[in-house]
Design goal:
The protein has seven helices and three strands. The chain is mainly alpha-helical and 177 residues long. It has two domains: 82 residues, Tyrosine recombinase, N-terminal domain (DNA polymerase, domain 1, Orthogonal Bundle); 76 residues, Intergrase catalytic core (hpI Integrase, Chain A). A hairpin with a 4-residue loop joins strand 1 and strand 2. The longest helix is centred in the first third of the chain and has 18 residues.
């Protein structure tokens, strides 16, 4: 069965469980469209891509579909020419919405629990992802060097994140900000 073969290939390639599920979901939708991805020719793949683009799927989700198709045809079915025409869609350029210093202070002050105040202050000061911050341990913080050792970074990569001097010794009161 195609699903089983693709799952084995995804595991062999070392893809994260979430990526495996996403790719299989994308290929499942493609299979509903063409009935048999194994039998589909490039014209059917192109029709699917056009349908996705017309459905107003966002660029990130479109990239997931494309990556799943490229993996299916490139690895599992060993027919990369079927998807050679695919080009990665780009995100529209948008400026991020940045909170003012006062807004950040009010947001952090609204957190009643010191534990959550420290957690979200750390997120804000370092730019860590939620998963990265939630896996931090006391030993990961090297205050002398002003760095945090992030062990659970995206893609199982470790990295060091700098701490600003202002991050040390915060009590959470407004006078410290």
């Amino acid at each position: 069965m195609l699903k089983t073969r693709m799952m084995q290939d995804l595991k062999l390639a070392g893809h994260a469980l979430k990526t495996q599920k996403t790719y299989l979901e994308c290929i499942g939708l493609f299979a509903q469209f063409c009935w048999s991805p194994e039998q589909a020719d490039q014209a059917q793949v192109r029709e699917w891509v056009e349908k996705l683009q017309k459905s107003q799927v966002g660029p990130q989700r479109l990239r997931q579909h494309f990556a799943a198709l490229k993996f299916l045809y490139g690895k599992t079915l060993a027919r990369p020419e079927q998807v050679a025409f695919l080009s990665w869609p780009k995100d529209p350029k948008r400026l991020p919405k940045v909170l003012t210093e006062d807004q950040v202070s009010r947001l952090l002050d609204a957190l009643e629990s010191p534990k959550y105040r420290v957690f979200f202050t750390t997120l804000y000061a370092t730019g860590l992802r939620l998963r990265e911050a939630s896996h931090l341990e006391v030993g990961d913080i090297d205050a002398a060097r002003g760095v945090i050792h992030v062990r659970h970074a995206k893609g199982q990569r470790e990295r060091l994140v700098m701490l600003s001097p202002r991050s040390f010794g915060r009590t959470g009161s407004k006078s410290d900000r």
